[in-house]
């Protein structure tokens, strides 16, 4: 039998322990065998290995290859400028790797956070003596003493308990403090047994003596830690797409290189000339600025999200948010405020609220005994700090006292002269007070336990007999409150004589009323649920709380809308096969209640197998494993434990569920924006490749130099591309379902638009400008030009400047890939405007300053060259508008 199913003597015997504790020799032996009472750290990758990985992922390997080929080309043909390209690519690899590593450096040290939740010292009985020892020195069999305010240091089986209540929220997710006793339990699950205390929980009220039966990694707390440490998070959708994009670019670059190699071979070029030509094509086709632009765009998105109270811990999570299809949310502290409040009263045969009582003080006077009961019948430790009332103890009792104070409009303090403590059999608490009216007994507890003890009932007109009809009315009201997710308590009282019999003092009670307590939902949650439905995002409640409470909250916030939702408890979940669980998850409305940490992970894993992008919210230790396994884990910043925060990808700084929706909207915008600047960056590849092609095939001077290509890719294009990366979300972005898993970051329509339409248009403008300058300068076909001749420098400058001008037009075309440019807000993005200003400034410095001419091989252009280029740029805009119009006609 399990330890919680044994009586106290059997439990001690099973651990070879005694009430007077272990002796020193036993402690030493068990420390050696079971180890220290602490959570062990799982071996993780070294910082060095993680650092190296930032420079060896697939796209980085493509850049390494490009740099190597550039250096090899320079070695074979010195003076071609390929070494400059090689060094520039190495710089890109270094900067991006260092930046990404720094962003990821705040790795998850959930182990440290777990340790903080455990107390440092504990009172223990050893060899008949009371000692205070470090928590790490506890061993199985130790007898510990615990009282109100203590954290539980290990998994313990109670030996004695006096009005003991424990807060299990951080481990099991239960919102209400749970009563505990030392009686044998028939419960199958350890975490729900009434005689066990779990490591990491806290004592709310009362005191007790317990024997330790599990320490360190053997505790339920340790098992959660192990799940958190060993949960493996897969690649984010963006990371998967970047890998796919890298392979496409690598394949396309190599294919183009090979194609041009054979073209050159057919034209009679020498092997090495042909080989160097192919290398130039390959390197020119690799968008060196893509990876740093993506990284910087994600980093800037994290800053925007922080302003919307969402702190992103891992860069790829920004985009993952936009792909979320399912949110698995905890209830306590996430959908609710994690505090008890009285929301409903049943007095004199009518349901009312504390607010209504406060508006009618005469009602409080008529039911004074009821409010005195709520005010006095408790085990709180009350203090007044700077004129403010404060209390330590059960949150439920704090809520009752606060409600009674507000309704009575005064504070009553009658000396407590005795108490009949709460226990699991009685399910009630009675306190006896000396009052001006004599000795009064006030009682509160479960209605089914108080009704048999009551003979009369309090009404506004006086005390009347408790008839069968009145009993039925009370039971009906209790069911009505419970159906709303409220915890219902009954109140009763009686006046005692001076020589009353303690055995019969709880007889002949006068029933005074019912109280319904709730953990209120956050007021912004219903609107957030509505937005989730509009955005095609399914919300599943996964909680450790009671199924009735969870269902009631689900209906109140709008998560549950169907008449017959699916509610699955932890016990039912254990009996479901993998296929049955995945079929159950197809239900439109579903709630999981009374589930453990491993079961949350199982739910997340099942959803991921169904190809869902899963976000999980939570704040407790029990949520951490699921937070880590999910595509994106979302922890509460205020109420969340350190463990949950360390395991999460995103932290809600205001604990506002609605902030998730704002973050998802930003995430959707990020994906759309990456596609925008991807089209923008890839467009310039064609005008950068074409000069090499005409140089080799037509035997003309090279129209565009390596250093000028770098000036475009790593200079002028960067800020406008970043501007596209921070475009505001589309107005209707949250009225669309999440994008399909089949939708690709780089698809054929985007490639065709960038390479075969916009890229070709830019290449035409570039070559037209190049030949215009040569022709007006008197150049004849086949004539060779010196690399420093003014005419050649002017021609390459025209070529370079034409790319800049067309890219300025292109940034507006990519800003609105589907809508007409004339219907879009053109000047609402300051970064794009600053980027254009920078492009114009740079092209001016490169074209018209001595250092720019020297460094980039340029020469000042005459005004007529600009006048020649600008109409082409305008034509490019008009042709793109025509394409959008035709596409809209076809799709209409």
Automatic annotation (TrEMBL):
<dbReference type="InterPro" id="IPR059000">
    <property type="entry name" value="ATPase_P-type_domA"/>
</dbReference>
<dbReference type="InterPro" id="IPR001757">
    <property type="entry name" value="P_typ_ATPase"/>
</dbReference>
<protein>
    <submittedName>
        <fullName>ATPase, P-type (Transporting), HAD superfamily, subfamily IC</fullName>
        <ecNumber>3.6.3.8</ecNumber>
    </submittedName>
</protein>
<dbReference type="GO" id="GO:0016887">
    <property type="term" value="F:ATP hydrolysis activity"/>
</dbReference>
<feature type="transmembrane region" description="Helical">
    <location>
        <begin position="858"/>
        <end position="879"/>
    </location>
</feature>
<dbReference type="GO" id="GO:0015662">
    <property type="term" value="F:P-type ion transporter activity"/>
</dbReference>
<dbReference type="InterPro" id="IPR050510">
    <property type="entry name" value="Cation_transp_ATPase_P-type"/>
</dbReference>
<dbReference type="InterPro" id="IPR023298">
    <property type="entry name" value="ATPase_P-typ_TM_dom_sf"/>
</dbReference>
<dbReference type="Pfam" id="PF00689">
    <property type="entry name" value="Cation_ATPase_C"/>
</dbReference>
<keyword id="KW-1133">Transmembrane helix</keyword>
<keyword id="KW-0378">Hydrolase</keyword>
<feature type="transmembrane region" description="Helical">
    <location>
        <begin position="245"/>
        <end position="263"/>
    </location>
</feature>
<feature type="transmembrane region" description="Helical">
    <location>
        <begin position="704"/>
        <end position="726"/>
    </location>
</feature>
<dbReference type="InterPro" id="IPR023214">
    <property type="entry name" value="HAD_sf"/>
</dbReference>
<keyword id="KW-1003">Cell membrane</keyword>
<feature type="transmembrane region" description="Helical">
    <location>
        <begin position="275"/>
        <end position="299"/>
    </location>
</feature>
<dbReference type="Pfam" id="PF00122">
    <property type="entry name" value="E1-E2_ATPase"/>
</dbReference>
<dbReference type="InterPro" id="IPR018303">
    <property type="entry name" value="ATPase_P-typ_P_site"/>
</dbReference>
<keyword id="KW-0812">Transmembrane</keyword>
<dbReference type="InterPro" id="IPR004014">
    <property type="entry name" value="ATPase_P-typ_cation-transptr_N"/>
</dbReference>
<dbReference type="GO" id="GO:1902600">
    <property type="term" value="P:proton transmembrane transport"/>
</dbReference>
<feature type="transmembrane region" description="Helical">
    <location>
        <begin position="825"/>
        <end position="846"/>
    </location>
</feature>
<feature type="transmembrane region" description="Helical">
    <location>
        <begin position="677"/>
        <end position="698"/>
    </location>
</feature>
<dbReference type="Pfam" id="PF00690">
    <property type="entry name" value="Cation_ATPase_N"/>
</dbReference>
<feature type="transmembrane region" description="Helical">
    <location>
        <begin position="792"/>
        <end position="813"/>
    </location>
</feature>
<keyword id="KW-0067">ATP-binding</keyword>
<dbReference type="InterPro" id="IPR023299">
    <property type="entry name" value="ATPase_P-typ_cyto_dom_N"/>
</dbReference>
<comment type="similarity">
    <text>Belongs to the cation transport ATPase (P-type) (TC 3.A.3) family. Type IIA subfamily.</text>
</comment>
<dbReference type="InterPro" id="IPR036412">
    <property type="entry name" value="HAD-like_sf"/>
</dbReference>
<feature type="transmembrane region" description="Helical">
    <location>
        <begin position="750"/>
        <end position="772"/>
    </location>
</feature>
<dbReference type="GO" id="GO:0005524">
    <property type="term" value="F:ATP binding"/>
</dbReference>
<dbReference type="Pfam" id="PF13246">
    <property type="entry name" value="Cation_ATPase"/>
</dbReference>
<feature type="domain" description="Cation-transporting P-type ATPase N-terminal">
    <location>
        <begin position="2"/>
        <end position="75"/>
    </location>
</feature>
<feature type="transmembrane region" description="Helical">
    <location>
        <begin position="55"/>
        <end position="73"/>
    </location>
</feature>
<dbReference type="InterPro" id="IPR006068">
    <property type="entry name" value="ATPase_P-typ_cation-transptr_C"/>
</dbReference>
<dbReference type="Pfam" id="PF08282">
    <property type="entry name" value="Hydrolase_3"/>
</dbReference>
<keyword id="KW-0472">Membrane</keyword>
<dbReference type="InterPro" id="IPR008250">
    <property type="entry name" value="ATPase_P-typ_transduc_dom_A_sf"/>
</dbReference>
<keyword id="KW-1278">Translocase</keyword>
<dbReference type="InterPro" id="IPR044492">
    <property type="entry name" value="P_typ_ATPase_HD_dom"/>
</dbReference>
<dbReference type="GO" id="GO:0019829">
    <property type="term" value="F:ATPase-coupled monoatomic cation transmembrane transporter activity"/>
</dbReference>
<feature type="transmembrane region" description="Helical">
    <location>
        <begin position="85"/>
        <end position="102"/>
    </location>
</feature>
